[in-house]
Structure formats: structure tokens, C-alpha cells
Amino acid sequence: MDAVLNSIAGLQNFALYFAISIALFFVFKVVYAFVTPHDEWKLVKEDKNTAAAIGFGGAMIGFSIALAGAVTNSEFLLDYVVWGVVAILAQLVAFALLRFTFMPKIAERINNNEVSAGVMLGSMSVAVGMLNAACMSY
């Protein structure tokens, strides 16, 4: 009986952190879609744009990697939320870095369904998410 109770002892914390993770993930998707000059939702859902799906999917994966790093290394709930916000900002910086330095026409290229642009955006987002998670390990 003790083994069963010990195994579910963390269930409440899991539920709390998971609920906040889903909320942060939702906030990220909304903020990211608002900040980017192209409409990811329309491009993916209506136009079936592969480049937009790859780029937006990479951004969500990169954010999730950073969020996983934050939950693993946070000492308490508020700490986790703060690092979750940092992860959102890091993904926005990654997009801005790509857009304003390496690929100034990234939005136009994604609108035109250039898969190579989507791969670059997705890759940059995942790379930044991995770096962000590693840096959160302080």
C-alpha cells in the first residue's frame, strides 16, 4: 500500500505543472502567431502550406524543449513560470534573428510555401530551444 501511495504522491504537483505547461504553450502559440508577419494558422489550416507547418512546428518543439528544461530545473512554481516566459521570449528572438539578419524575406518565402525557408525557421527554433534549455540548467 505504501508503494502505491508513494507512486502517486507527486500527482498533484504533476497536474499543477502540466496545467501551467499547457497554459504557457497556448500563450506561446498565440503570441508567436501574433508577432510573426505571416498568419501560420491560415497558412497551415486553409492553404495546407508545408513551409509554415515546418516553421511553426519547429517553434512549438523548440519552445517545448525549453519549457521541459525549465520544469526540470526550477525550484518552485513561480520560478518555472518566469523561465517559461523567458522561453517564449527566446523563441521570439530566434524568429527576429532569422528574419532581420539571415533571411530578411522569411515571411514572404513561407507565404510562398518555400519548404527550405520553413526548414530553416523550424531548425533555428529547435536549436534555440535546446540552447535555452541547456542555459536554464545553471
Brief account:
The protein contains 7 helices and no strands. The protein is an all-alpha fold and 138 residues long.
Describe, in plain words, how this protein is organized in 3D:
- The chain is mainly α and 138 residues long.
- The protein is 83% helix and 0% strand.
- The chain has helices at 2-7, 11-35, 40-45, 50-73, 77-102, 106-111, 115-135.
- The radius of gyration is 17 Å and the shape is elongated.
- The mean pLDDT is 93.
Topology:
Blueprint: H1 2-7, H2 11-35, H3 40-45, H4 50-73, H5 77-102, H6 106-111, H7 115-135
Helix pairs in contact: 2-4, 2-5, 4-5, 4-7, 5-7
Number of DSSP-assigned strands: 0
C-alpha geometry: elongated
Helix segment tally? 7
* Helix-residue proportion: over 70%
H/E series = HHHHHHH
- Please state roughly what percent of the residues sit in beta strands, choosing from under 5%, 5-15%, 15-25%, 25-35%, 35-45% or over 45%: under 5%
Q: What's the main sheet like?
A: none
Secondary-structure-based class equals mainly alpha
What is the distance, rounded to the nearest whole angstrom, between the alpha carbons of the first and last residues? Answer: 38 Å
Query: Regions with pLDDT < 50 over 5+ consecutive residues?
Result: none
Radius of gyration: 17 Å
Mean pLDDT: 93
